[in-house]
From TrEMBL:
Domain Heterokaryon incompatibility: 25-120
Top-level division of the source organism's lineage: Eukaryota
Organism: Knufia peltigerae
TM regions (residue ranges): none
PANTHER family: HET DOMAIN-CONTAINING PROTEIN (PTHR10622)
Pfam family, one: HET
Lineage: Eukaryota, Fungi, Dikarya, Ascomycota, Pezizomycotina
Protein's name in the database: Heterokaryon incompatibility domain-containing protein
Amino acid sequence: MRLLKLDGQGEPKLTGDLLDTIPPYAILSHTWGYDRDEVNFDDLTYGSYKNTAGYAKIQFCGEQAKKDEIEYFWVDACCIDKANHSELSEAIVSMFDWYRNAVKCYVYLSDVTGSRINHHCTQCWWESDFRTSRWFRRGWTLQELLAPTSVEFSSREGELLGSKKTPKVLGEEHPVTISSVSNLALTMKGQGRNIEAVKLMSECVQLRNRVLGAEHPRTLFSSALLTEWQGAE
C-alpha cells in the first residue's frame, strides 16, 4: 500500500510501498471521470498532474486531511500502479480493509454544488442533487460507506454536507442503497468471502421484501441467490 503526503509546498507526494507499519491515513471516495481527466500513478511519479481535472479532488483530500491533523491520505486513482496487474489484483482484494482501517473517509461529490449551504434549513436545496449523485450508482459505494468508521460527504467546492451518521443523508430504503447492498454482496462472493456475502444478501432480501414486496422480481432474484449461497456453505 502506498500513501500520499503533502510536501512543504502543499504538493502531494507518494510514499514507497508500505508493507508492515501503516501510519494513520484518510481515504478518498469519488466518482471517476474520463481517463484523461484523472491523475494516475505515472502522473504523480513524474509530476505531470497540475493541469488535470482530477487534481482538484486529490488536493481536496490532502487539504482536508491536513485540517483533521492526518498526515497521510490515499486516493485509488494515483496510489495504485494499474500497469502492474498483480498490484492491481491485490489492491482490489484489499480495498475493503483499506477503507475500514482509514481514520476518515472523505466522499467528494463532483456533481453536487454546496456553495449556498444553509446549515439551519430543514430542506436544503442541494439535497435533491445529493440523492441523485452519480456516487450512489457505483458498484463500490456501499463498501466505501460501510467499511470506514467515519465518512464525510463534501460538495465539489469542498464544503461539508454531512456524514453517514447524519439522518437526512441516506436512508436504508433508498432504491440505490438496496442495489448497493446487493452489489457489495456479489463482490464479496466473488472474493470468496462467503459468510459476509450471505449475511449481506440476507439484509438485501429483507430490505427488498419490505420495500418492494415478496413477489417483486428483484426480491425473488435476491432470495434465489441467497438460497443458492446458503446451500453451498
